[in-house]
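Dear H.,

Thanks for agreeing to be a second pair of eyes. The structure we're designing against is below in token form, covering all 181 positions.
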């Protein structure tokens, strides 16, 4: 529906609902982030609004179902999901959520999926672009050095980039460059 935001707003739509009741935090955070950025971009420059590829990529990474416009515009053929939107990539995988404010460069993460020291991760924050960096170090709450974090545990990780409380840490779907300051 990103492509149709200007049309919807100009037709008098004043609010949107993003499904989230039966969704995980990764889905909800991503959908809210993308639509907040898109709405802000539209209201900043309505005549020059363009859907950003980054927004499409972020939504493609959370797609639990295929996308279509449903019956919004009264065209039965638009109820067919648009698979081209999703591409052929595997979505990023949520590995954890930052639980405590960082101290000394270490983040406390509740682990949702296994990851290792050296793995690339992305820090997903509201109001910021997705930032990518390697996991430099890992330890448990007793300070024991770890090489792997397993689902259901809480670990401290060291990243060369900043992260804030409740930021999501995820494993990217494809290798790429690190954006280390």
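And this is the sequence the design step returned. I haven't edited it by hand at all.
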């Amino acid at each position: 529906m990103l492509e149709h935001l200007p049309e919807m707003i100009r037709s008098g739509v004043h609010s949107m609902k993003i499904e989230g009741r039966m969704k995980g935090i990764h889905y909800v955070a991503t959908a809210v982030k993308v639509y907040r950025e898109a709405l802000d971009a539209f209201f900043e420059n309505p005549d020059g609004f363009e859907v950003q590829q980054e927004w499409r990529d972020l939504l493609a990474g959370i797609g639990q179902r295929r996308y279509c416009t449903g019956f919004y515009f009264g065209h039965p053929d638009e109820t067919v999901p648009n698979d081209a939107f999703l591409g052929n990539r595997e979505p990023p995988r949520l590995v954890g959520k930052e639980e405590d404010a960082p101290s000394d460069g270490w983040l406390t993460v509740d682990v949702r999926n296994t990851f290792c020291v050296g793995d690339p991760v992305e820090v997903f924050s509201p109001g910021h672009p997705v930032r990518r960096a390697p996991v430099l170090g890992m330890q448990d709450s007793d300070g024991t050095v770890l090489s792997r974090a397993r689902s259901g545990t809480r670990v401290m990780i060291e990243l060369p980039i900043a992260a804030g409380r409740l930021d999501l840490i995820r494993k990217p779907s494809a290798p790429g460059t690190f954006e280390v300051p």
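Two observations from my side: The mean pLDDT is 79. Residues 112 and 151 are 5 Å apart (CA to CA).

Warmly,
E.
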